[in-house]
Amino acid sequence: MINGTTELVAHIGYPTHAFKAPLIYNPWFQSRGIDAVVVPMGCRAADYPDFLRAVFRLTNIRGALITMPHKVSTVALLDDAAPAVAIAGSCNAVRREPDGRLLGDMFDGAGFTRGLRRKGFALAGARCLIVGAGGVGSAIAASLAAEGVASIGLCDVNERAAADLAHRVMRAYSNVRAAVASADPAGYDLVVNATPLGMNDDDPLPFDVARLAAETFVGEVVMKREMTPLLCAARARGCRFQVGSDMLFEMIPAYLEFFGFGTATPDELRAVARPSS
């Protein structure tokens, strides 16, 4: 029951009809007896800077989940930011520090790498290829670099975006080699599809799966279906893989820890998650 002691987590974006976070967080809070609630808050881009500041004037606010279209614009509204924010150029979590300053972090990539670790993939020293250097690809690059991979190849139709991301990675993590690369997956330990390819039945594959070695781990970010055409092809070649929704359920424990709610396992979150229809 929501009452006068309930702490709020604002879920800010626009539009809100597709928000899934309340269907996962709120049942988990209830199952743990935590007096908190995630509340969808629809806010258009023009109103967002003033709205974010106003939200954090509430005395019972614990933090904010930030989604489209505000992830990029949030960066300029922060007082402090984690390294992942600087690399990705976007932010999806904000909390108010005891001194009133707003601290931001980005957990898309953390969800991805947590999933890899849980599946036994050795991140330290790995050779990685990310196809797609947009928001989610940038976040994944940041988290891979933080985990100590040896190198990150970045492929994008916008070569400048890939080059800029490589520069930001190496500026933050001088021990990681990052560079623009082709979409050829040969020779990598990890290959990630960070593009929307796979959302539609007639989408081409993001890279040539015939060039995949059986030892290569394949990661997917598309969540519309669990087994995308890419993952089906990778499985047929004997590759280990990670489905897109794993990133979501691995990301939520990182959020919970950031906001000071403890942690959860993906299995616990999947068990309590309410269907959206």
Topology summary:
Blueprint: E1 7-13, H1 21-32, E2 36-42, H2 48-55, E3 61-66, E4 80-81, H3 83-88, E5 93-96, E6 102-105, H4 108-118, E7 127-131, H5 135-146, E8 151-155, H6 159-172, E9 177-180, E10 190-193, E11 217-220, H7 229-236, E12 241-242, H8 244-259, H9 266-272
Parallel strand pairs: 1-2, 1-3, 4-6, 7-8, 7-10, 8-9, 10-11, 11-12
Antiparallel strand pairs: 3-5, 5-6
Helix pairs in contact: 1-9, 4-5, 4-8, 8-9
Tell me what the CATH architecture of the largest domain is: 3-Layer(aba) Sandwich
Please give the largest β-sheet: 6 strands, mixed
Contiguous low-pLDDT stretches (5 residues minimum) are: none
User: Which fold name corresponds to the CATH topology of the largest domain?
Assistant: Rossmann fold
Output the structural class: alpha/beta
Oligomer type: single chain
SSE ordering:
EHEHEEHEEHEHEHEEEHEHH
Alpha plus pi helix count: 9
Can you identify the CATH class of the largest domain?
Alpha Beta
Q: Within the largest sheet, what's the order of strands?
A: 2-1-3-5-6-4
Mean pLDDT: 94
What is the rounded Rg?
Answer: 19 Å
- In total, the number of domains comes to 2
Distance between the termini: 22 Å
Count the beta strands: 12
Overall helicity: 25-40%
| CATH-assigned homologous superfamily of the largest domain | NAD(P)-binding Rossmann-like Domain
The share of residues in extended strands comes to 15-25%
- So what's the overall shape? globular
